[in-house]
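FORM 12-B: Structure-to-Sequence Request
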């Protein structure tokens, strides 16, 4: 039996109960369609996106090459090329910059540390195959893991406080993550195909690291003799002018592309294919002026996730992720297509995504914001347009109850989320929006959105308003 409150909600939506499948949750305030203020602002919004792209400072390298084979490198699939690559990078940097070239062949290696003015270039047929023994990623370096700084394993490709750096070419970066290497450190996982080892489990490092951050332990003291935190694949840390272009990245231990506290970053034409735990495709953290374009994401976690630090550590650094443009990308498998959070304590602003295609029976969400009252953070001015979605489970997700839920004193805030010109072929739910009663979700505008088929409208809980214009669900217009 439908109670009167829910029946009133249905009447406001202009849909019958059988068309919904799931009724709006308590606390949602539904408003009629407003005047198309967003439409009049559309061109101004997207001029901001163009301005961000035009203001990105580009990399530039001298026209000289340093083949790793000139320094003893061998692409025979057996030789350890770690030292040869390091020598080539050092020589290139000392000469004022250029390309360190990896030719065709399989070059085994440990951690690679880039220096200013160096472009690590993989020719067609080149494979950089990274060792899975953690000893190859020591000594420890300054890094960030799930939004918390520590002295941890070196990322597979790492740069610290460098400028004008690149990883380019048509070759492959092979992380060799698998059900027997790196990935089992995750411990329990819904898709785990390994027995859980009670010793080699990230929880034994993750939990004390997060406790250290909450207590304000200095970063240089956040070290672990037994460390089971898998390193990200590519991490420029406090770098300026970064280009990652053309390469294919496979089977990462952890996040694939993870610029941190960096400016002027371009990720272009990269194929991210990794289905292990936490195989996020591209996760810029606390960065400014980032362009992600013409990339393919086929991942075991979020395709693109924008972040700015976790809890106390994010508030300590207080650096938002800002001025981001995502365009002409393809998202296949993943937990989310365009995602903000969950490590978002530093906030996010001025995020634009356009001309993207998302489609997979195992793509969980198209647009996702995840946070809670322990994270906090202001997320504002997020715009998406010209988005084509084939199959997805949830179209729009804003969840203030992620992980710890409502157990803190740092209220998240989401303002000014605009979506225009979106077509969805098939979804299970349109909305999963859960704000707090004392901190509702506001400022969501949908303009020219067509949901051809969805089983359910979904959940709308503590949402102050959704402004709609030309929005249809299952062939019927809706105004929320």
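FORM 12-B RESPONSE
SEQUENCE OUT:
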């Amino acid at each position: 039996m439908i109670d009167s409150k829910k029946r009133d909600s249905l009447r406001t939506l202009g849909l019958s109960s059988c068309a919904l499948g799931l009724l709006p949750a308590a606390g949602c305030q539904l408003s009629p369609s407003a005047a198309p203020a967003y439409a009049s602002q559309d061109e101004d919004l997207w001029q901001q996106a163009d301005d961000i792209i035009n203001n990105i400072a580009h990399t530039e390298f001298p026209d000289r090459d340093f083949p790793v084979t000139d320094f003893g490198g061998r692409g025979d699939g057996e030789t350890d090329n770690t030292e040869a690559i390091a020598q080539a990078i050092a020589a290139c940097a000392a000469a004022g910059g250029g390309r360190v070239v990896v030719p065709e062949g399989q070059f085994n290696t440990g951690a690679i540390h880039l220096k200013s003015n160096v472009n690590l270039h993989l020719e067609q047929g080149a494979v950089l195959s990274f060792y899975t023994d953690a000893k190859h990623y020591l000594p420890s370096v300054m890094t960030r893991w799930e939004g918390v700084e520590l002295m941890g394993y070196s990322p597979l490709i790492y740069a610290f406080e460098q400028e004008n750096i690149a990883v380019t070419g048509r070759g492959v970066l092979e992380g060799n993550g698998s059900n027997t290497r790196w990935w089992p450190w995750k411990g329990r996982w819904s898709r785990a195909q390994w027995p859980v080892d009670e010793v080699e489990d990230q929880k034994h490092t993750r939990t004390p690291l997060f406790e250290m951050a909450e207590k304000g332990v200095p970063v240089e003291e956040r070290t672990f003799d037994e460390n089971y935190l898998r390193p990200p694949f590519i991490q420029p840390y406090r770098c300026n002018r970064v280009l990652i272009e053309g390469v294919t990245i496979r089977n990462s231990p952890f996040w694939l592309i993870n610029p941190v506290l960096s400016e002027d970053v371009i990720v272009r034409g990269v194929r991210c294919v990794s289905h292990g735990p936490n195989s996020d495709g591209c996760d810029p953290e606390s960065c400014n002026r980032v362009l992600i374009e013409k990339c393919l994401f086929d991942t075991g976690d979020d395709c693109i996730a924008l972040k700015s630090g976790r809890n106390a550590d994010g508030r300590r650094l207080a650096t938002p992720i800002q001025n981001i443009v995502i365009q002409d990308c393809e998202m296949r498998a993943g937990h989310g297509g365009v995602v903000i959070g969950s490590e978002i304590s530093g906030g996010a602003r001025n995020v634009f995504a356009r001309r993207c295609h998302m489609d997979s029976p195992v793509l969980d969400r198209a647009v996702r914001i995840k946070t809670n009252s322990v994270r906090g953070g202001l997320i504002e001015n997020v715009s998406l347009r010209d988005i084509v979605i084939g199959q997805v489970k949830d179209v729009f997700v804003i969840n203030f109850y992620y992980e710890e839920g409502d157990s803190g004193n740092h209220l998240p805030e989401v303002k000014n989320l605009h979506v225009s010109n979106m077509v969805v072929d098939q979804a299970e739910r349109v909305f999963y929006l859960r704000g707090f009663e004392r901190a509702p979700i506001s400022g969501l505008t949908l303009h020219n959105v067509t949901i051809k088929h969805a089983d359910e409208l979904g959940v709308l809980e503590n949402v102050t308003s959704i402004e709609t214009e030309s929005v249809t669900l299952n062939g019927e217009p809706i105004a929320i």
